[in-house]
Amino acid sequence: MSSEAAANADFSALRYAQCWEDADILLEALNIQPGQTCLSIASAGDNALAMLSRGPARVIALDLSSTQLAALELRVAAYRELSHQELLVLMGSSSGKGRETLYRRCRSQLSQAALDFWDAHGCDIRQGIGSAGKFERYFAMFRSRILPLIHSQQRIERLLEGGTREERVNFYSEKWDTWRWRLLFRVFFSRAVMGRLGRDPSFFKYVDGSVAGRILQRTGYALTELNPADNPYVQWILAGRHISALPYALRPENFESIRGNLGRLEWHCATIEDFLGRERAAAIDAFNLSDIFEYMSQENYEQLLDSITRAARKGGRLAYWNMLARRRRPASKKDRLRPLDQLAEQLHARDKAFFYSAFVVEEIV
Predict the structure, then answer these.
(1) Is 123 part of a structural domain of the chain?
(2) Quick check: 2 and 276 in contact, CB under 8 A?
(3) What percent of the chain has pLDDT over 90?
(4) What are phi and psi of 338, to 5 degrees?
(5) Which of 206, 239, 272 lies at the terminal end of a domain, its last residue?
């Protein structure tokens, strides 16, 4: 089975320098147990690393982009060679000097392909490798060029302080949710602008309706029902760093467990279709599928589900996100997949990576 995403999108550049999916809800959804085998879409590597903290026997990270795997490789090297605080500096989560020196300490752990990529991106290393992707540059443009036209720095800092739910709701309605916010947000996060500057235009092929309107609604939810003071994704978008919250893989309490299990992680430059076509049956317990189904037709989605369920063990789980295109287990797969809708809805209500319209959890039967 060929990859629709590989055929339609350009993956030569680094698209994501961070994983923009909440590992907290991912890990709860997958319920990974010690000794299990897990498969993860690699992206920048954060969530594949987060899965290691649960003690699986094997985590297989896949990406069809060698540049995305270069991001994962550098993270693995950083966990091996750096302290936790130094890792945060290299990422750009914390301010600090000497990122190039930190990178040089990691170079001996990198493959030639990863060395070639990162040696040619010294500016990205100096800024913090978490800023190096196209998607992160898109947010940086919003932060530096659009947001100052809407709100003062003081008001942005106040928003990020959070507070009680009542305080957050009042602040959002009285100070933040202005006509200028709604107008410029809808322009910048429109299908046309996002397709040109953020995501690949082909990623919107199966999307109907207003892109910006849906994202604006989810953003309002994140800034009121969720607490920005606890949200690393909001903080990075609005401030360009992590102020008072970190994503799961970067928290100090998870650092040693991830580092201790790095030998259980492997990565392959391959499409999930090709990898599963070679994998034996009933071999994998947990699947982190990111939002890959969003980029393919309903027919290809159902074909890939066939490959996944063949490779999955009974009782195993799939977790994936819908951003704008609706993808859920079709009725034709009801004898092989059981939706865990109540769990998925509870987790989505806490999803700090707030721009997704749905979180899907399904179990192999």
Answers:
(1) no
(2) no
(3) 86
(4) -115, 120
(5) 239
In a domain, 329, yes or no: yes
13 confidence band (pLDDT: 50, 70, 90) = confident
Kindly tell me the burial class for residue 143, based on how many C-beta atoms sit within 10 Å of its own C-beta (0-12, 13-18, 19 or more). middle
Query: What's the distance, CA 326 to chain centroid?
Result: 18
**CATH for 49:** 3.40.50.150
Mean pLDDT (the chain, rounded):
93
Residue 197 is assigned to a structural domain of this protein: yes
The identity of residue 252, as a single letter, is: P
The answer to whether 365 and 305 are in contact (CB under 8 A) is no
Instruction: Give yes or no: residues 217 and 265 share one domain.
Output: no
The end-to-end CA distance of the chain, in Å, is 24
Among the three residues 239, 271, 295, which one is the final residue of a domain in this structure? 239
Domain with 234, as residue range(s), is: 134-239
Q: Tally the domains of the chain.
A: 2
**pTM summary value:** 0.93
Owner of token pair 């993956």: 11
To which residue do tokens 């060029």 refer? 145
In order, the DSSP letters of 202-269 are GGGTT--S-HHHHHHHHHHHHHHTS-GGG-HHHHHHHHSS-SS---GGGSHHHHHHHHHTGGGEEEEE
